[in-house]
TrEMBL record:
Signal peptide: none annotated. This is Eukaryotic translation initiation factor 3 subunit B. GO terms for molecular function: RNA binding; translation initiation factor activity; translation initiation factor binding. Keywords: Cytoplasm, Initiation factor, Membrane, Protein biosynthesis, Repeat, RNA-binding, Transmembrane, Transmembrane helix, WD repeat. Residues 2-59 form the Translation initiation factor beta propellor-like domain. It comes from the Eukaryota. PANTHER family: EUKARYOTIC TRANSLATION INITIATION FACTOR 3 EIF3 -RELATED, EUKARYOTIC TRANSLATION INITIATION FACTOR 3 SUBUNIT B. It comes from Parnassius apollo sibiricus. The chain crosses the membrane at residues 32-51. Pfam families: eIF2A. InterPro entries: EIF3B, TIF_beta_prop-like. GO terms for cellular component: eukaryotic translation initiation factor 3 complex.
Length: 65
């Protein structure tokens, strides 16, 4: 499971979005922070999911063979 939180000083973290059943083992943030790539790499290939964290939409999903 992958969860995104908002952290404000003096307050408890607030859950923004939780993705269940996501088999990803690597996360790569954009240097500017809005976009993240969720990646699953294994011996037989993998998958990449490109996510916009402003609204948590999946922009693209790629399967690597």
């Amino acid at each position: 499971c992958i969860s995104f939180y908002q952290v404000n000083t003096g307050q408890a973290p607030t859950l923004l979005k939780k993705f269940e059943n996501k088999p990803f083992n690597h996360l790569f943030w954009s240097p500017l922070g809005q976009f993240i790539v969720l990646a699953n790499f294994g011996l037989t290939g993998g998958a990449l999911e490109f996510l916009d964290t402003n609204d948590f939409t999946i922009m693209m999903f790629l399967t690597i063979i």
